[in-house]
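Case study 2.
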Amino acid sequence: MILPIVAYGDPVLRKVGKEIDKDYSELSTLIANMWETMENANGVGLAAPQIGKSIRLFVIDATPFAEDEDLEEGEKEVLKNFRKVFINAKIESEEGDEWAFEEGCLSIPEIREEIWRNDIIHVTYQDENFETHKATFSGLAARVFQHEYDHIEGVLFTDKVSSLKKRLLKKKLENISKGKIGADYRMRYYGAKRR
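Prediction:
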C-alpha cells in the first residue's frame, strides 16, 4: 500500500526514533508498504519518520545510482546490489574526506542542496530478520545511508546547509509545510488547513 509521505514541518520528522524488536506489530507489512511508497515516489531511501512512525527503521535502494557513468566500476558493483532494510542502525564511526553532493528528500520536495558528508562510515544494523550486521560503506552508499540515518535521529538535510542558505530556503520550507507545493506523490502536510 502506498502511504502518504510526511512533509517538512511535521514534528515527527524531528523526533529521535525508538528502537524496535521482532515483535513490532505488522513489521513485514510496514516494510513492504515502505518499499512501495518509496518506489512510487522515485526515491532511493525512505525512513519510518517520513511515513509518520518514530522508529529506527529505513529502507534503501541505491541501485539507480549504479547507472551513473562517472562512477568507478567497483562502486557501480556495490550500488547494483544495494537494496536493504536497516533496523536499529547505528553509525559507529565516520572517516575519510568530506565531499559535497546535491541531496534532495521526499519530505522536502523541490529543494536540492549540496551537502558535505564523510566518505566512509562503519555501521551496525539489523536486517528484516533481526540478524545483526557490521558493515563499512563508502561513496554514494555511505551518503544515502547517512541521509536516511539522519531521519531516525530527527535531522533533515536542510539542517546541514549554511545559515545564509537556511535564510534563502525559509519561505520555500514554509510553503512545503503548508502544502503549497505540488509533489507527484501522496503527501501529508502538518501545517496545511484541513478541508
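The beta strands are 5-6, 45-47, 57-61, 83-105, 108-126, 132-138, 187-188.
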